[in-house]
C-alpha cells in the first residue's frame, strides 16, 4: 500500500507541473512571435533576390518552407547581432540613441565592410526622398493655411463694416 501511495503521489506533482508548462510555453511562443520577422516580407525579399540572380523577374525560384524559416531566423539573428554591436558603438560615444553612423560602424566592426558604402548610398537616397516628401507636405500645409487665412480675412473685414453701418 505504501508503494501504491507513492505511485499515486508521483503523477499528481507531474500533472501539477504540466499545467504551468503550457502557460509558460504560450508566453514563450508569444515572445518568439513578437521577434519573428513578417513571413510575407521575408518570402518576397528572398524570391525577388533569387529571381534577380537567376536571370530576371520572370524566372521562377522555388524555396521550401524550411529554407524560408531558415532565412527568417538568420535575418532575425543578424539584426540582433547588428543592433547589439551598434549599441556598443553608441555607448563608446557616450550616447543613448543609436544613429545610422553607429550601424555603419557596426557593420564595419562585424567585418561586413563591403555593405557600408551601398548602405550609405541607399541611406542618402532615402533621406533625399523623405526631404522631398517633407517639402511637398510643407507646401501643402502652407497652401492650406493660406487658403484658411484668405477665407477668414473677408469675414473679419465684414464684421467691423457691419458695426459701422449699425452706428449710423
Outline of the structure:
Helices cover 82% and strands 0% of the residues. The chain has helices at residues 2-9, 11-18, 20-35, 39-54, 65-92, 100-109, 116-167.
**What share of residues is helical?**
over 70%
Number of helices: 7
The arrangement of helices and strands along the chain is: HHHHHHH
Radius of gyration: 31 Å
Structural class determined from secondary elements:
mainly alpha
Which term fits the overall shape?
extended
The N- to C-terminal Cα distance equals 115 Å
Instruction: Give the strand tally.
Output: 0
* Whole-number mean pLDDT: 78
Report strand %: under 5%
The biggest beta sheet, please? Answer: none
Protein model, in words:
The chain is mostly helical and about 170 residues long. It has helices at about 1-10, 10-20, 20-35, 40-55, 65-90, 100-110, 115-165. Mean pLDDT is about 80; it is low at about 1-20.
Amino acid at each position: 500500500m505504501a508503494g501504491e501511495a507513492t505511485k499515486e503521489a508521483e503523477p499528481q506533482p507531474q500533472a501539477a507541473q504540466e499545467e504551468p508548462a503550457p502557460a509558460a510555453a504560450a508566453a514563450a511562443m508569444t515572445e518568439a512571435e513578437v521577434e519573428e520577422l513578417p513571413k510575407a516580407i521575408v518570402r518576397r525579399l528572398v524570391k525577388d533576390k533569387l529571381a534577380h540572380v537567376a536571370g530576371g523577374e520572370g524566372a521562377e525560384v522555388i524555396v521550401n518552407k524550411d529554407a524560408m524559416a531558415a532565412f527568417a531566423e538568420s535575418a532575425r539573428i543578424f539584426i540582433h547581432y547588428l543592433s547589439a554591436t551598434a549599441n556598443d558603438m553608441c555607448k563608446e560615444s557616450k550616447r543613448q540613441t543609436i544613429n545610422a553612423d553607429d550601424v555603419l560602424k557596426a557593420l564595419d566592426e562585424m567585418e561586413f565592410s563591403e555593405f557600408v558604402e551601398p548602405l550609405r548610398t541607399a541611406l542618402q537616397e532615402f533621406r533625399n526622398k523623405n526631404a522631398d516628401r517633407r517639402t511637398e507636405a510643407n507646401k501643402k500645409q502652407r497652401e492650406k493655411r493660406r487658403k484658411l487665412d484668405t477665407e477668414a480675412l473677408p469675414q473679419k473685414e465684414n464684421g467691423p463694416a457691419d458695426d459701422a453701418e449699425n452706428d449710423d
